[in-house]
Amino acid sequence: MNRLSVLPNVLSVLRIILTPLFLVTLFQGEWSLVLALVIFTIAALTDTFDGYYARRYDAYTFWGAFLDPIADKILIGATITAFAVLNLVSWWVVLIILIRDVFVTLLRLQKIAHGGMLKTSMLAKVKTTAQFVSIYFFFICLIAQWLQAPAAWYDVSLTLAQTCLYLVAALTLYSGLDYVRK
């Protein structure tokens, strides 16, 4: 592993470390909502930058190919679970996402045990992007509620967030089946 390969892995580890900090901040109350959003955004940006950097400098590693999707699953799974605790997300959607993520991780581990690697599919990348978009709509809901914005703001953002998350659930199931097929 060369020195250029270290940064993407550090960014993935940072994403994992920021997840509990984000969760603690999110549940501190309305005053900390903006800080939780900032922490989540920094964590989400590490996903963008580690991938960009790895592609730009050909800094791929076996460890990074495993760690990056795990870091995504930890951040997104924890965030969507937190939103379920806040009664913004249905638990059945959370379960679909978490079960698929555990299943794909087990597939990934099986491939590693047999000397292979399970590359993240384009469909899974689209799913992850849709997850991030829906999460930001949920943040809009929470901020609208905190600012006591007109109820329509909350209702529209919640409808957009939940619709996006239902799309994510469908993509989650489809991409899980796609991994099994491959």
Walk me through the topology.
Layout (H helix, E strand, L loop, with lengths): L5 H21 L6 H24 L5 H24 L5 H23 L8 H25 L4 H31 L1
Helix pairs in contact: 1-2, 1-3, 2-3, 2-5, 3-4, 3-5, 4-6, 5-6
Question: What are its keywords?
Answer:
182 residues; mainly alpha; 6 helices; globular
Overview of the molecule:
By secondary structure, the protein is mainly α. Helices cover 81% and strands 0% of the residues. The protein has six helices and no strands. The protein has helices at 6-26, 33-56, 62-85, 91-113, 122-146, 151-181. Helix 3 (62-85) packs parallel to helix 5 and helix 4 runs parallel beside helix 6. The radius of gyration is 17 Å and the shape is globular.
State the gist of this model.
It contains six helices and no strands. By secondary structure, it is mainly α.
What spatial form do the alpha-carbon principal axes imply? globular
Q: State the end-to-end CA separation.
A: 28 Å
Using only CA atoms, what is the Rg? Answer: 17 Å
Largest sheet: none
Written as H for each helix and E for each strand, in order along the chain, the element string is: HHHHHH
- Derived from helix and strand composition plus strand pairing, the structural class reads mainly alpha
Low-confidence stretches: none
What's the number of helices? 6
Helical amount: over 70%
Report the sheet-strand fraction.
Answer: under 5%
